[in-house]
Amino acid sequence: MKNVYCVLVSLSKYLLIFLANFNKKLKLFVEGRKETFSKIAVLKNHKTIWFHVASLGEFEQARPIIEELKQTLNSYKILVTFFSPSGYEIRKNYKLADVICYLPLDSKKNAQQFLEIVNPKMAIFVKYEFWPNFLYELKSKEIPTLLVSGILRENQLFFKSYGSFMRNSLQAFHHFFMQNEISRELLASINLENVTVAGDTRFDRVSKILQQDNSLDFISQFKDNKYTVVAGSTWPEDEELLIDYINNDSVENEKFIIAPHNINDEAIQKLKNSIVKKTVLFSNKANTGLKEYQVFIIDTIGILTKIYAAADLAYVGGGLKTGLHNILEPATFGIPVIIGHKFDKFKEAVDLVEIGGCISIQNQKEFTQNLIHLRDDKNDRTLIGTINKKYIEDNLGATEYIMNYLNTHL
Fold first, then answer.
1. Bridge partners, 78 (sequence order)
2. 3-state DSSP call for residue 339?
3. d(CA 107, CA 332)
4. Which listed site, 94, 161, 162, 352, has its alpha carbon 20 to 30 Å from 227?
5. Using H for helix, E for strand and C for coil, what is the string for 8-69?
6. Backbone angles phi, psi at 383, to 5 degrees
7. Residue 29: CB atoms within 10 Å
8. Coil, strand or helix: which one is 145?
9. What CA–CA distances, in Å, run from 58 to 61, 64, 148, 166, 405?
10. Distance separating the N- and C-terminal Cα atoms of the chain
11. C-alpha to C-alpha distance for 343 and 349, rounded to whole angstroms
12. Contact 268, 239 (CB under 8 A)
């Protein structure tokens, strides 16, 4: 099985190079990896802690640990590798990391070369990034390796009768810091007991958002003290619901801020043209009377968290088809959150839907009904928002568990 995996990785390299000619995101994926080994060369002979994340969400889980490390163990260099361009492009200039780059494809040669250069004092993988060749090399070099904010499901390959290859790769981890008890039990079922149920470090991260200045003058000007819905990380299927609702003649006293997940000029213009209400783009906001507009489309990245601070209600995209985005960021501001119906892989969404802080919708009718209800019922908005805020507060502390381990093992 290992040999088959290695052949597939090798073949994927050539397939990705070919497909990159037709896809902008894949081109970033391929071209960015050409720079990895030159970037990490500056870490040779330094004490380095390596964090690997898949994308932006996992980076936010690593972030509170990195921030604590910089305060308590600042003699170490910090390396952050990304798998996905969508995470790398947003956080490639993060100041607390010494080097940020893409993770090379998971070939044995790449893993050996990467670890020969970096030789980290510790490797920290986030949530569910499992790359067998890298893990095997980490184990062979006896480099301490952790999984943090990990979460597992019974249908994963590790727990199948034919999953021994992937199951064996888990032996590389010296300790697992998992989000829930179910994940601990799944690891125990394959005889892995070096586990702490610590929770999710993202709660610590989003809680700190409240301590920063989240005001944006242009958002305040647009909002003009009116009821505002913020739709974050939307995809076309999410935007269809929004367009139908916004274009209704009865929707006159609400403001809408839409922050699409993918910033593509053609798609942004198509979205703008489909809305009949007065709409402005972030890129065209200069010298504009923003309060005169009803819809504000954010065709830039990196400011969504602060925009949520101005929301009376948040809709978080991805839950209708592509994969739900971060609902904890709006939840920490104590506002109701609406999502699509595909959220079962996201523990926080499952929890919040169950306790009533997050509302799941399946179609246009449910979307419209919930938006109208929450617009008109301020008491219910306050109640739901309070549930969300308390949920965040009740789940703080994962970073402390991990830092206690790091302080005694580094």
1. 49
2. strand
3. 40
4. 352
5. HHHHHHHHHHHHCCCCHHHHHHHHHHCCHHHHHHHHCCCCEEEEEECCHHHHHHHHHHHHHH
6. -60, -50
7. 21
8. strand
9. 5, 11, 10, 21, 20
10. 35
11. 6
12. no
In degrees to the nearest 10, what's the CA dihedral of 343, 348, 353, 354? 120
The DSSP H or E segment spanning 206 is helix 202-209
Give the tens place of pLDDT for each residue, 182-214.
Answer: 999 999 999 999 999 999 999 999 999 999 999
Is the whole model's pTM more than 0.85, yes or no?
Answer: yes
Q: What H or E segment, with its residue span, contains residue 400?
A: helix 398-409
**Can you tell me the distance from the alpha carbon of 202 to that of 392, in angstroms, rounded to the nearest whole number?**
9
**Residues 32-49: tens digit of each pLDDT:** 999 999 999 999 999 999
- For helices 265-273 and 236-246, the axis angle rounded to 10 degrees is 20
Q: What is the DSSP string of 207-255?
A: HHHTTS----HHHHHHHTTS-EEEEEEE-HHHHHHHHHHHTSTT--S-E
pLDDT tens per residue, range 285-338: 988 899 999 999 999 988 999 999 999 999 999 999 878 999 999 999 999 999
Pairing mode, strands 255-260 and 228-234? parallel
Helices (H), 235-327: 236-246, 265-273, 304-308
Residue 252, beta-bridge partner list: none
- Cβ proximity of 36 and 25 under 8 Å: no
Q: Is the dihedral of CA 202, 204, 207, 213 positive or negative?
A: negative
> What does DSSP assign to residue 55?
S
Q: Could you tell me how far CA 250 lies from the centroid of its own chain?
A: 35
What does the block give as tokens for 141?
A: 């070099």
